[in-house]
Specification:
CATH class: Alpha Beta
CATH topology: tt1808, chain A
Largest sheet: 6 strands, mixed
Number of domains: 1
Shape: globular
Order of helices and strands: HEEHEEEEEEHHEEEEEHHH
Helix content: 25-40%
Number of helices: 7
Number of strands: 13
CATH architecture: Alpha-Beta Complex
Strand order of the largest sheet: 3-5-8-9-10-11
Strand content: 15-25%
Length: 226
Amino acid sequence: MPLAAPVSTPPLLEGDSLTSDEFLRRWAEIPSLKHAELIDGIVYMPSPISRDHGDFQLYLGNWLGFYAMVTPGCRCSMEATWVMGERQVPQPDLTLRILPEYGGQSGMAGEYASGSPELIVEVAVSSYSRDFGAKKRLYERMGVREYFIAAPRDQKLVSFSLTSTGFQPLDADDNGVIQSAYFPGLWLDTESLWDLDLQRMNAVLQRGLATPEHAAFIEKLVLKKH
């Protein structure tokens, strides 16, 4: 009796309609693939990363990373895969989350983060329409507390804070500084971002970190630790 031919795993293709489990299973069969997303059950494959995207993602990562370094219980990640639901596996450019043992809202699903982080930052270049459309709607539904979208080619930073009625715009102050509503002391000077002036970005962040609100936030996180 002839042996049955082995069944190969179908490739992961742009536009496939999959569940989260099938998406991750197919991805695991492609070790060379580093970027892919499942949004509302539809697969999105990576496009080439522009210099603008790479530069601004790095600077924003430094900004979030420094905040996490001096704020106990906070963790910054870059391009990590999140399992947010049965048909939702986004790969945000940057996230800032509070660890579960400090009272954070996210968890783990095997080797992947699950649920939703408290803050997501996307750099919108080739992914512009998705970042402002399907991903914004997903993050709002999943309870992401804050969502920042940096659009370098328009020199536009759009920020949203989650309220009882959904995402609402979070406006900069008169000096062009965005102050996070959820992470006290997380201040971003938008002009220095567009200039890629890390020294000035850091100086404004340091002012935020020196506020009583940031000190009180640290105390709150430490008290929650278990």
